[in-house]
Amino acid sequence: MTEKIRDGSNGDVAVDHHNRYKEDIAIMKGMGMDAYRFSISWSKILPNGKLSGGKNQDGIDYYNNLLKELQDKGLEPFVTLFHWDLPQALEDEYGGFLSPKIVDHFLEYADFCFKTFGDRVKNWITVNEPWTYCYGGYVTGALAPGRCSAPTKHVGGVLGWGRYSCWQQLSFSNGEDLANNETFCVINDQIHARARGRKQPRHIGGDSGREPYIVAHNQLLAHAAVVKLYNQNYKASQKGKIGITNVTKWMIPYSESKKDHDAAQRAIDFVFGWFMDPLTTGDYPQNMRNLVGSRLPRFTVEQSAMVKGSFDFIGVNYYTARYVVDAPNTSTENPSYITDPQIEFKRVDERDNPSILAACVDKHRIKYFYDHLSLVQKAIKDGVKVKGYFAWSLLDNFEWSEGYTVRFGINYINYKDGLKRHPKLSSIWFKMLLKST
């Protein structure tokens, strides 16, 4: 899907962590870090998604070597089993997470990982940001597998990502639909996706009013099945923990009106509650039941019991906050996850393209971490059981549909000079912070 990547790039080499993991672990060690969160690529272990399709020994050796290096350097691995890189064979065979068949194959893959790496991994994460996978892959089509409904105009949207439910399909020939006639901006999860005058590729099919809910349902069932397997077969001997990493944003009412306060709660329910409520109560939020109706799948009694409480810990990926306004007229004749919550976001954002020097002097990133860590510290003092904090990210990286056009790392990657690593000011600040604690 390189045609959907903003700069037309791919992740074949990315930052070459595969070959430079020792160098990168040395950077972590030198900064005083004591843990490293990374994901295992399902396709790198089982190229065809199943044990019957054969194992990739090179991939298995790589993760064994990575874990050994982490162990030697005293860094604790936190390992994610699924960070959106589904084996293509399973997508081709039955549509991946659109089918309940995925549960058994995810279980088989996880079982292999527990057997192979579990003696050195004490913290497992089943899925990273299941919401983003559903939204990007099946609502907007910005992420793999790129499915969404045909474009539908509406007012606002659940996440304010623009005026269309599937922005990849838009033609840029209609000037009145474009900001400044040349630039159409949408906010896509944690990033701004900006397309300047170029037509985005057409969608490959989908239903943004049904498929996201099906995929979320199957992700929750797959997660719960893996947790059950780990608890029954591995926890006692390996003495590890297992959880899931969800994503959220804090939702702030745009006004003091009751309608906007209710809208903010609906926004929370449709992002965080969509996954957190089943994990804690065994069912989806009532707001979702009311607004989505029969399109929202139902758990059986047995499934509800399996999903409820299926975690030792919860990871929370947090990026920003949103102002939310009530938008009761967003519903359309063609239902979509975007319009279901009947809300609209208010946000203005700008971004530039700094030079290497400016990119390394990232005072804004230091302020971001300082402010958030200060509030994490306050939460701990107030009794919240926060056990750790992972900064995103160690290095600049290939950022999905944004390619290499954004830089989230605390260490700069020079893509034009052999992928050399350069510490940003935030990296130096983190090192000083860790040494002082």
Automatic annotation (TrEMBL):
The keyword Ribosomal protein does not apply. PANTHER family: GLYCOSYL HYDROLASE (PTHR10353), MYROSINASE 3-RELATED (PTHR10353:SF137). Coiled coil: none annotated. InterPro entries: GH (IPR017853), Glyco_hydro_1 (IPR001360). Belongs to the glycosyl hydrolase 1 family. The keyword Hydrolase applies. Keywords: Glycosidase, Hydrolase. This is Beta-glucosidase. One of its GO terms (biological process) is carbohydrate metabolic process. It holds the Pfam family Glyco_hydro_1. One of its GO terms (molecular function) is beta-glucosidase activity.
